[in-house]
Amino acid sequence: EDQVTQSPEALRLQEGESSSLNCSYTVSGLRGLFWYRQDPGKGPEFLFTLYSAGEEKEKERLKATLTKKESFLHITAPKPEDSATYLCAVQAGGYSTLTFGKGTMLLVSP
Amino acid sequence: DTGVSQDPRHKITKRGQNVTFRCDPISEHNRLYWYRQTLGQGPEFLTYFQNEAQLEKSRLLSDRFSAERPKGSFSTLEIQRTEQGDSAMYLCASSGRDNYGYTFGSGTRLTVV
After folding, report:
1. Chain B residues inside the 8 Å CB shell of A97
2. Which residue in chain B is spatially nearest to A49 when comparing CA positions?
3. Is A55 in contact with A48 (CB distance < 8 Å)?
């Protein structure tokens, strides 16, 4: 059974204080690893897809990396508007559906 | 904006009543998914359509739940004889033939009282 574990559950940062979120996964034949951002009361917003170990992708202050067992979402010099829940999900080979972790709730204080 | 639309945004119903939600995917997307999310949890897969065919259903999906996607366009999710445990956010997502990067709708928040 595919499993996704995200840590920490919650993270509070000061504006400008860089940090990383972790996503550990167990999947039979990884097809893709996805990062989403979710604001309260809204649906998840797509950020990145990573397909193979060693791959990295960046978007503004966010950088996602992937190894064979985990993925990191690095947040550089965060701003209050980066406050949200960040969800990680995996897609197994041969399947279209995603298995999500519980998310990391990020709060960035000014 | 031609994103994924869900209706209604909020639904309050009494236990035992039936409810139906609608999802309009991005027009060129042939894959449509329903997920359920409760507070503090990630989205949980319910069912998946490719065009009008329902290809996969979660084994956690009760017989009280049914979904349709007539003509491969919009989809409906019906919950019969609602229970308090059905209270959750119901999310719809769609994806294209490349199958990557689902686009989610804003969800329907169901409260069963």
Report:
1. 33, 45, 48, 56
2. B101
3. no
Cα B41 from Cα B62, distance rounded (Å): 19
* DSSP letter, residue B40: T
Which residues does B75 contact at the CB level (< 8 Å), separation at least 6? B22, B23, B25, B32, B34, B49, B67, B68, B69, B92
Compute the distance between CA of residue A110 and CA of residue A108 in angstroms, rounded to an integer: 7
Confidence grade of residue A28 (pLDDT, cut at 50, 70, 90): confident
The answer to whether B18 and B81 have CB atoms below 8 angstroms apart is yes
Which chain A residue's Cα is nearest to B89? A41
Q: Which DSSP symbol is given to B106? A: -
Average pLDDT along chain B: 93
Among the partner-chain residues B50, B91, B103, the one whose CB lies closest to the CB of A46 is B103
